[in-house]
Design goal:
The complex is a heterodimer of chains A (about 240) and B (about 425).
Chain A (H helix, E strand, L loop, with lengths): L5 E10 L2 E11 L4 E6 L5 H7 L8 E6 L2 E2 L5 H5 L3 E4 L11 H8 L8 H11 L1 H5 L10 H13 L5 E5 L7 H16 L3 E6 L2 H7 L2 E6 L2 E7 H6 L1 H7 L4
Parallel strand pairs in A: 3-8, 3-9, 6-7, 7-8
Antiparallel strand pairs in A: 1-2, 1-4, 4-5, 9-10
Helix pairs in contact in A: 3-6
Chain B lengths: L1 H6 L1 H27 E4 L2 E4 L1 H23 L1 H14 L4 E3 L7 H18 L2 H26 L8 H18 L3 H23 L4 H21 L1 H4 L5 E2 L21 H4 L7 H27 L1 H11 L1 H5 L5 H27 L1 E2 L6 H14 L4 H17 L7 H15 L8 E3 L11
Parallel strand pairs in B: 3-6
Antiparallel strand pairs in B: 1-2, 4-5
Classes of the chains: A alpha/beta (about 240), B mainly alpha (about 425).
Bound molecules: adenosine-5'-triphosphate and magnesium ion (MG).
């Protein structure tokens, strides 16, 4: 198999005495959409943020395109072509929509700014109407769109998303997953952390299930969707 | 009567409760302060004075609460609450600004001013401009980058002492020291910044506060180098080597002789004023440009969310350091002007009060707002100068202003507005 886009090799992560990740190993292949599902506090966000060394992993290795990026500083990781849509969006509230987008393109400079901005507005027409509005005043769904658009502005090879459906109405969730599907169809590699297992798994080629900081299951999206354990725990049991 | 009172009780109950609470607070506050007067080793009680003050507070609060219950008052209150956290406003990209006309007029007026002003007014305005410079510098650090620097005065001192010491020990003049002081202050900013900028909020504030005090104590106690509390003299500026004194040192020609004018001590201040004005305009221009550039956006983004910034590829230490150094160098410039304007420097000009004053300028002006800072700098420095007899109450005035400000305009005098980005293609396209 070719070199994976992202690989975790036996990663342990501690917050003081609390161990958040236990010997986690996973892979995301180039062009693949992979989701990681798990309950609250399973360690999903910790895993995602550890790619950016926030916090740093205690042991194990994180590889990106075959390169060891364990312990690399957050801003250096960002320049390698990894973009993230963080948990809770973390858009810049006092900046306008456009300025938020410009923040996203900071790592790659101004070369494609105009072109990319247009592309984002085509992807999320709502953002175009609100381009000069302060980001804080956007609705939750719009903020999520902005967070995704901002991440895409850096033309990433790998897009990490932490619970993009959090707190959104079903219709908006659908819309966002539709956009993600388009991105994936265009060849983008996606690594998705979700509680909304049914949406995430239907979108994904493969999925991992995390329980208490350990990977407990792995399989294709369909396998996991039909897996009785997953159905019980994450799909409401039907 | 009683029935009437009871019937409208729902309207009364709130205000009465408010008034009672305000009265209690007033009693606690004024009781010991106003009611007990020391007399030798004894003290006298003045219950009537306390009662008067408390009575005024209760009545005032009652009237205020009642007024706010009327239809008009409610509208007011609402406007208040609404205006409270609207934060930054985004101006459409193509909106024509009135500034295009006003700004040249202001600059013209400022250029003409010294030729008509008397010396006193001139010196007051120079002081005001120095604080504008300080306010602008600290505004980058606190207002834009969100780094609470309580020792900002240290960089001001470095600029001022830079001029005095450079002259004393190395024979350097105003023009050499002006850029050099900016560089020196920036270097000091970097030296302080590197270890400190990993800290957040309170910790940063405390460390910078300490730094400010250390610089002042060193200046105060290193007698052989800085002259200690006696201070040092600072040179006046020269115009192409022409001095502004009555007689030039080292046998040169002074300014007035060279141009065939009669001697006037005002020339020196007019010259300082004009140079200072140019520097202020330059700093304003640079700041205005920087804010629109990626670095300006990076400062603000860092203030808003450091973690998001870092995962956006920003090196937070460098970004903070740049804000810190730029702010410091601006203070260095201000220090040079202050020293040359005063003709001497000593440590009493660089106390914590000065840092607090500059911070007050930034906060009152509106965090991040340039115009607000300019206005606030003049209000806070020029007003107490002009109201000399009121000088004792200066600090009280600040306090009152701050409290009013936090209630009325928590985001400062001038709300920061930012211009929308010009769309690359016409709005309707695509
Ligand atoms: N900064 C921190 N300090 C200490 N413990 C932390 C910290 N951040 C997370 N944890 C702990 O690590 C564990 C995993 O947290 P994490 O945020 O990764 O969970 P998650 O799977 O993302 O949950 P959710 O679905 O609720 O977002 C939790 O037990 C949490 O309490
Ligand atoms: Mg999480």
């Amino acid at each position: 198999m070719s070199v994976p886009m992202l690989e975790f090799r036996q990663v342990d992560l501690f917050y003081g005495a609390i161990q958040a990740l236990h010997q986690v190993s996973l892979q995301v292949q180039v062009g693949e959409t992979v989701s990681l599902i798990g309950a609250n506090g399973a360690g999903k966000s910790s895993l995602l943020m550890s790619i950016f060394s926030q916090p740093q992993v205690t042991s194990g290795q994180i590889l990106y395109q075959g390169r060891d990026i364990t312990g690399l500083q957050a801003h250096q990781v960002a320049t390698l072509g990894i973009a993230q849509v963080p948990e809770g969006r973390r858009i810049f509230p006092d900046m306008s929509v456009e300025e938020n987008l410009l923040m996203g393109s900071l790592v790659i400079g101004d070369t494609y700014v105009d072109e990319d901005r247009q592309r984002m507005f085509e992807l999320f027409p709502r953002l175009r109407e609100r381009r000069n509005q302060r980001a804080m005043t956007l609705s939750g769904g719009e903020q999520q769109m902005l967070a995704i658009a901002r991440a895409l502005m850096s033309r990433p090879c790998l897009l990490l998303l932490d619970e993009p459906s959090l707190g959104l109405a079903p219709l908006v969730v659908k819309q966002i997953f539709h956009t993600l599907r388009e991105l994936a169809a265009d060849g983008m590699t996606l690594f998705l952390v979700e509680q909304n297992a049914s949406h995430a798994l239907r979108l994904s080629h493969r999925g991992y299930v995390m329980v208490n900081g350990r990977i407990s299951l792995m399989g294709t999206g369909e396998e996991l969707l039909t897996n009785p354990q997953v159905r019980m725990a994450y799909l409401g049991g039907h | 009567m009683k029935a009437l009172l009871m019937r409208y009780w729902p309207y009364w109950s709130g205000p009465v409760r408010d008034a009672g609470f305000a009265g209690l607070m007033a009693l606690i506050l004024f009781g010991p302060v106003v009611g007990v007067v020391l007399k030798g080793y004894d003290f006298e009680l003045h219950p009537s004075r306390v009662a008067l003050l408390v009575g005024i507070v209760i009545l005032g609060r009652l009237l205020l609460s009642l007024a706010l219950q009327t239809a008009r008052g409610k509208v007011w209150l609402q406007r208040f609450e609404l205006g409270r956290d609207q934060g930054v406003q985004v101006v459409p990209a193509h909106q024509k600004s009135l500034w295009r006309w006003v700004l040249p007029l202001i600059i013209l007026a400022a250029l003409i001013l010294p030729f008509y002003a008397n010396k006193y007014l001139l010196t007051v305005v120079i002081l005001g401009l120095i604080y504008v410079l300080l306010g602008l510098g600290l505004n980058i650090v606190v207002g834009l980058a969100g780094l609470l620097d309580l020792g900002y005065v240290a960089f001001y001192a470095i600029g001022a002492y830079g001029l005095a010491l450079g002259y004393e020990h190395l024979g350097l003049g105003f023009w050499t020291m002006l850029p050099l002081a900016a560089v020196l202050a920036a270097v000091a900013g970097a030296i302080l910044g590197f270890p400190v900028l990993r800290m957040h909020g309170d910790y940063l504030a405390i460390v910078t506060l300490g730094f400010g005090e250390i610089i002042r104590l060193v200046l105060n106690n290193w007698l052989s180098f800085t002259g200690g509390p006696n201070g040092l003299s600072a040179p006046s500026p020269t115009l192409l080597g022409l001095e502004f004194g009555r007689r030039a040192k080292d046998g040169g020609t002074p300014f007035h002789e060279f141009f065939g004018l009669t001697y006037d001590p005002n020339y020196k201040f007019i010259f300082i004023y004009l140079v200072l004005l140019l520097v202020v305009l330059l700093v304003l221009y640079v700041k205005q440009r920087l804010v629109r550039m990626p670095i300006g956006r990076a400062w603000e983004a860092l203030r808003e969310d450091e973690i998001a910034c870092r995962s956006m590829g920003l090196n937070h230490v460098l970004v903070k350091l740049s804000a810190f150094m730029l702010g410091a160098s601006t203070a260095g410039l201000a220090g040079v002007f202050f020293a040359t304007y005063q003709g001497f420097v000593n440590p009493t000009s660089f106390t914590f009060f000065e840092s607090a004053l500059i911070l007050a300028i930034v906060v009152l002006g509106g965090m991040g707002s340039t115009l607000g800072v300019v206005i606030a700098a003049f209000v806070l420095t020029v007003a107490p100068e002009l109201l000399r007899s009121f000088a004792d109450y200066r600090v009280l005035l600040f306090g009152v202003l701050m409290v009013l400000m936090m209630i009325w305009r928590p985001r400062g005098l001038i709300r920061v507005s930012r211009r929308g980005v010009v769309p690359p293609v016409a709005q309707g396209a695509a």
